[in-house]
């Protein structure tokens, strides 16, 4: 059962530009210090964030002597804005720092993590359609880089880790979609993602496979060459073994690369008037004749045996009467 707080109509967005809404109206946020502080609290929602981390998020390595006092002023200002915007006082003060208390559904990051977890569970349980829907719902929470526009080392580090998680979810989702034969649907998205993340070999392999299954063998091989050149020039390394193996399989048109085939529709069979269909295989005429012959032989053998027994019995009777 949801509590009253879980039903409050306010949302916080951090997967993109920092935004706060209540009842459909945006809550005005202060300048960089307030926004960086709030973003750092949101990244650790429902956990106490040490004051030192808040200082680092705002000033990095050069906090002024009055930094802790300024943090208190920022927190007080944010609280006033939240109360005035109808959200209420949701920031707690603790001896070690501050904590923001949010309903699970109020923060886009929490929704992303929850939906991604459900998607992985559905995939493990053998429900790919459901898993893809959940993964796509999770990915839809993203509206851009984490806390876009806020230049802070703490936020940049968090953004890097969360971007990695976002891409991992996308790769898991695309893997399922490729297994389901949706290669044409994901080609465009994979082109964009590979352009933005050219060193992710898994994503490059997915694009190559999607192109090949779409009848674009030359484009798939061109993508491999571009990735190989990039890795060689930029990093001085060759593509990994799995990517090289995929290139060779594409070159020889390995049947194992073919996508799933839809089962052919069953051809209806109309029984003729002369015979009816049966799931039991009917014996051939030769089999029937052989069975009858074996049965007749067995009967004759049994009759001969009975006749011989009758003769022996009659002889025994005559001897007993003599």
Write the layout of secondary structure elements.
Blueprint: E1 10-13, E2 19-22, E3 25-26, H1 32-43, E4 49-50, H2 51-59, H3 67-84, E5 91-93, E6 97-100, H4 108-124, H5 128-139, H6 153-179, H7 183-196, H8 201-213, H9 217-235, H10 241-251, H11 285-321
Antiparallel strand pairs: 1-2, 2-3, 4-6, 5-6
Helix pairs in contact: 1-2, 1-3, 4-5, 5-6, 6-8, 7-8, 8-9, 8-10, 9-10
Basic shape: elongated
Structural class based on helices, strands and sheet pairing: mainly alpha
- Strand sequence of the main sheet, in spatial order? 1-2-3
Distance, first to last CA: 107 Å
Radius of gyration, in Å, reads: 38 Å
User: What fraction of residues sit in β-strands?
Assistant: 5-15%
Mean pLDDT, rounded to whole units?
A: 85
> What proportion of the residues is helical, as a percent range?
55-70%
The biggest beta sheet is recorded as: 3 strands, antiparallel
Structural features, described:
The protein is mainly alpha-helical. The chain has helices spanning 32-43, 51-59, 67-84, 108-124, 128-139, 153-179, 183-196, 201-213, 217-235, 241-251, 285-321; strands spanning 10-13, 19-22, 25-26, 49-50, 91-93, 97-100. The protein has a three-stranded antiparallel β-sheet with strand order 1-2-3, with no helix packed on it. The chain has a three-stranded antiparallel β-sheet with strand order 4-6-5. Helix 1 packs across helix 3. The chain starts with 9 loop residues before the first strand and ends with a helix.
């Amino acid at each position: 059962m949801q509590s009253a707080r879980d039903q409050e109509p306010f949302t916080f967005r951090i997967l993109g530009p920092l935004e706060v809404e209540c009842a459909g109206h945006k809550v005005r946020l202060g300048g960089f210090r307030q926004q960086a502080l709030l973003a750092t609290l949101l990244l650790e929602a429902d956990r106490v964030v040490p004051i030192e981390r808040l200082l680092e998020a705002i000033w990095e390595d050069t906090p002024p002597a009055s930094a802790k006092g300024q943090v208190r002023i920022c927190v007080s200002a944010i609280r006033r804005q939240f109360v005035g915007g109808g959200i209420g006082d949701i920031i707690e003060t603790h001896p070690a720092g501050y904590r923001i208390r949010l309903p699970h559904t109020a923060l886009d990051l929490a929704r992303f993590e929850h939906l991604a977890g459900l998607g992985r569970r559905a995939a493990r349980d053998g429900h790919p359609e459901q898993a893809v829907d959940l993964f796509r719902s999770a990915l839809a929470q993203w509206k851009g880089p984490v806390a876009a526009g806020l230049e802070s080392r703490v936020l940049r580090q968090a953004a890097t880790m969360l971007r990695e998680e976002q891409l991992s979810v996308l790769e898991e989702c695309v893997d399922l979609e490729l297994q389901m034969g949706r290669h044409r649907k994901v080609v465009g998205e994979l082109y964009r993602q590979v352009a933005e993340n050219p060193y992710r070999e898994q994503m490059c392999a997915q694009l190559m496979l999607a192109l090949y299954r779409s009848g674009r063998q030359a484009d798939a091989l061109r993508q491999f060459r571009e990735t190989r050149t990039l890795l060689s020039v930029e990093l001085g390394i060759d593509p990994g073994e799995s990517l090289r193996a995929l290139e060779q399989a594409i070159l020889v048109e390995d049947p194992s690369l073919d996508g799933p085939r839809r089962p052919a529709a069953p051809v209806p069979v109309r029984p003729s008037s002369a015979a009816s269909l049966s799931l039991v295989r009917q014996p051939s005429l030769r089999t029937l004749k052989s069975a009858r012959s074996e049965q007749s032989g067995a009967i004759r053998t049994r009759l001969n045996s009975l006749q011989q027994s009758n003769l022996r019995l009659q002889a025994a009777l005559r001897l007993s009467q003599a």
